Amino acid sequence: MLKPQEAFQILQEIPVPRQKVHLPLIHCLGGILMEDLLADRDFPPFDRVMMDGIAIGNIHIKEWALEGIAFAGETQKSLSNPNGAWEIMTGSPLPKNCVAVLKIEDLDFFEKEGKKWVSSKNDTIEKGSFIHTQGSDIQQGQIILKKGTRLKANHIAIAASVGYSKLWVEKLGEIHVFSTGDELVSIEETPLDHQIRSSNSIMMQSALQHVGITSKHHHLPDDPTIILQSLKTSLSTVDILLLSGGVSAGKKDYTPGILKDLGFEAKFHKIAQKPGKPLWVGNREDGKVIFAFPGNPISTLVCFSIYFLSWIQDKKTPFPQVKIEGLQAPLANLDHWIPIQWTREHQAKVLQHNGSGDLVHWQHADALAWQKANDPNDELTYFPL
Ligand SMILES: Nc1nc2c(c(=O)[nH]1)N[C@H]1C(S)=C(S)[C@@H](COP(=O)(O)OP(=O)(O)OC[C@H]3O[C@@H](n4cnc5c(N)ncnc54)[C@H](O)[C@@H]3O)O[C@H]1N2
Ligand code: MOO
């Protein structure tokens, strides 16, 4: 049977179907930037005051006569007396003729002959202190964000600061998420004794939303005709389908057969791992891709997090390592994904649980540790959840 490492390699060869779109900035998270963004001005665009306090022109004296107050949002002021000072607020342009900023905590304000003065409590004052110099971050015309950047929230802030309200990005389109199984009822319903509430789809949809992907959910009964028709309809509009349930060896586990009938080639079905052994992944000549996750809630969670999210984010193994307390002996033929909780820096402990149907004991899991078959090591690579 295929090992997880081999499954990761196969996934790398399946192209992620992305669309080229011009989107409002608020929807660009997770997309890949298709153009270089240039700084439209120097950053910062003026000598920016970094602390609330005063700006001075002479650093060799200890007392300065105050000339006025400069707030952020006001035009640049100018110091007329070389031994004077301006009261200034963080974010305001440094007044002309000033060479240093002193913060308010280090100052005493007082009056002399009816005029306002200020003195420093510090012995030394450095030229340039608390001044964020114009163009020190980047100069006008330089590339501020490179084509190919996978956009995170910090990149969105940069795009906004150079005036892009829309960006050209390559992004995953909407994904359709299917739950399958006659035993499942919706969250709002009260299940009968033999029924359970569906939880896999909302888990995947929430995680998709977190990485900036929109999704729709459909539920499918264990009826091959309905499953086939519903998947066909979805495939006419979307590139990626995520299914849960119906992929193991049960008499109503129709999914793999139906996917074959829809023209999909199984890239793999079954990985030598626990949980999540019956994972099915395949694609079609038109570039559409389907991940069919084993229905047990933890199996779906593990396979979705480890394989699907890595695939769409081009994440490469190996993952970082952590030392783990409470590890059992490794399994003989299967790699084991083990829920762990951080105990202190670079240390984690194994969480006890009742298998891949047990969502309850996995609530404290911070990460999944990867214990390879027959590997007695207690320092393992992990995948954050
Ligand atoms: N004879 C064998 N039986 C099983 C094997 C096997 O290799 N041989 N594999 C086991 C493993 S491992 C897993 S994992 C499960 C996966 O089975 P399926 O993908 O066919 O999933 P179902 O049978 O439809 O459901 C399994 C379990 O999960 C619950 N479920 C399903 N969907 C949801 C959902 N959306 N939300 C919450 N819970 C869900 C379902 O009610 C079942 O309890 O097969 C083993 N069997
Ligand atoms: O792999 Mo199943 O996920 O053991 O329950």
From TrEMBL:
The lineage of its organism: Bacteria, Pseudomonadati, Bacteroidota, Cytophagia, Cytophagales. Pathway: Cofactor biosynthesis; molybdopterin biosynthesis. InterPro entries: MoaB/Mog-like_dom_sf (IPR036425), MoaB/Mog_dom (IPR001453), MoCF_biosynth_CS (IPR008284), MoeA-like (IPR038987), MoeA_C_domain_IV_sf (IPR036688), MoeA_linker/N (IPR005110), MoeA_linker/N_sf (IPR036135). PANTHER family: GEPHYRIN (PTHR10192:SF5), MOLYBDOPTERIN BIOSYNTHESIS PROTEIN (PTHR10192). It is an enzyme of class 2 (transferase). GO terms for biological process: Mo-molybdopterin cofactor biosynthetic process. This is Molybdopterin molybdenumtransferase. Its EC number is 2.10.1.1. Its cofactor is Mg(2+). Keywords: Magnesium, Metal-binding, Molybdenum, Molybdenum cofactor biosynthesis, Transferase. Residues 176-315 form the MoaB/Mog domain. GO terms for cellular component: cytosol. Catalyzes the insertion of molybdate into adenylated molybdopterin with the concomitant release of AMP. The gene is moeA. Belongs to the MoeA family. It catalyses: adenylyl-molybdopterin + molybdate = Mo-molybdopterin + AMP + H(+). SMART domains: MoCF_biosynth. Gene3D superfamilies: MoaB/Mog-like domain (3.40.980.10), MoeA, C-terminal, domain IV (2.40.340.10), Molybdopterin biosynthesis moea protein, domain 2 (3.90.105.10), Molybdopterin biosynthesis moea protein, domain 3 (2.170.190.11). NCBIfam families: molyb_syn (TIGR00177). The keyword rRNA-binding does not apply. GO terms for molecular function: metal ion binding; molybdopterin molybdotransferase activity. Signal peptide: none annotated.
